[in-house]
Amino acid sequence: MKRKYKVLLKLNFLSLFFIAVSFISITLAWFAYSGFARAETSVDVKAWYIEFQKNGEAVNNDIVISIDEIFPGMEPKIETIDIKNLGDSDAAISYAINTARILEKELNISDEESGFLNDSLSHDYPFHIDVSLSKSYALKQDGSSELKVAVTWPLDSGNDDLDSNWGSKAYEFKKAEDEKHLKDDNYQPRSPVKISISLKAEQTISSDESIDLNYTLGDIILYNPTTNQKCTKVSSTCLKTNIIDIENRVGDTYVTLLPDLYKSYGLTSFTGMSSAFTELTSRWKVTSEKLTAKHLLNIISKDIESSKIKKENLSDSLIGYTSFQNRTEKIMTDVINNNGSFIFSASSFPYLTSTRCFWLEESYDETRAFTLSKLDDNTGSIKPLEKTSTCSIIPVMKIPKTNL
């Protein structure tokens, strides 16, 4: 019996020995792996967190806008989607109108033709459907942008037949939908206007076509046009300027700068503007051009709530989409033919407002030309003024990025 116990005892000691060696091996292996892992975790892992909100509540990136009623003189319907970047990387923001239905007509347009669809919805009907993205980017850690959809129908557009025709169509459509619902409780009446929009947020990638986050609309740059260099303190030659490129791209070689409107650059009549402009810019070493109404309309049209067309004896209407083909020129021609002007929010575009008036390059008619000025503390305007009046001139500077 004693011999048997001895054998078992030896076996147990041997087992314990191997178990101990095993633990030591595992421990050493863990320490070796742990040390290697610590060396690798020096690489940052960035969080990606984009949030879309409507009225403070989270929504997904596929957005459906339905408008129950449309009629001349309706209160503007504005839908807003707030886009917040809570992550650690800058985001490029874009949208696409996937489908749009106007009464019975379905509009299905591919992404490549989205500019056409935006333009058509904004201008081809007596009512206007406008979509606008405040910024094409949202900076990391609480950067933001905003998507807005506005549906408007001015009470008096100047075309009574068109208003009446489409007003009748909208009424008949709603009446038919209500009748279908009365016959079938399960039938859901369709809204007269329905738009499907996809919002996209992507991590910014440096390519020639991506937005250059170093040069975004409204950014301030101090620049000396007489030396063609950046400067650090505002003076008679060091000018405070704002970027007026709508979307400057990485591949763009120039940045467009508008000098501060609170500085005087010379007073003249419209007929003397060209000579005054030449005299001023002859001392500058930068490429410059005259400020135009087209420059300004492309900027202020991004605001689809407050940027409007005012026409004599007609209702105000939104400027609408301007980025498709020659739409800006068509809008200006229509405004001139109706003795109209443009207004915009001074708080939305503070760098475009001043108590001074500034000549723009375009004539309005034989005796008047477009000017940029301020109507009141809240409103800026682009309106006609007699060419014999006295206003300031304002050169726009085209600066190579290599100088910045």
Written description of the protein model:
This protein is of the alpha+beta class and 404 residues long. It is built from 6 helices and 24 strands. The chain has helices at 2-40, 114-123, 160-183, 273-281, 293-300, 327-337, and strands at 50-54, 57-59, 62-67, 77-85, 91-102, 105-108, 128-133, 137-138, 143-152, 193-203, 220-224, 229-230, 239-243, 254-259, 267-268, 287-290, 308-310, 317-318, 341-345, 358-363, 368-376, 379-386, 391-392, 395-400. Strand 11 and strand 12 (229-230) form a beta hairpin. It starts with a helix and ends with a strand. Residues 1-43 have low confidence and may be disordered.
Q: Detail the poorly predicted runs.
A: 1-43
> What is the alpha-carbon Rg in Å?
31 Å
Termini separation: 96 Å
Shape: flat
The tally of helices reads: 6
Kindly state the number of beta strands: 24
Structural class: alpha+beta
The overall average pLDDT, rounded, is: 86
Largest beta sheet: strand ordering: 12-11-13-14-24-16
Could you give the order of the helices and strands? HEEEEEEHEEEHEEEEEEHEHEEHEEEEEE
Percentage of residues in DSSP E strands = 25-35%
> Which percent range fits the helix content?
25-40%
Biggest sheet statistics: 6 strands, antiparallel
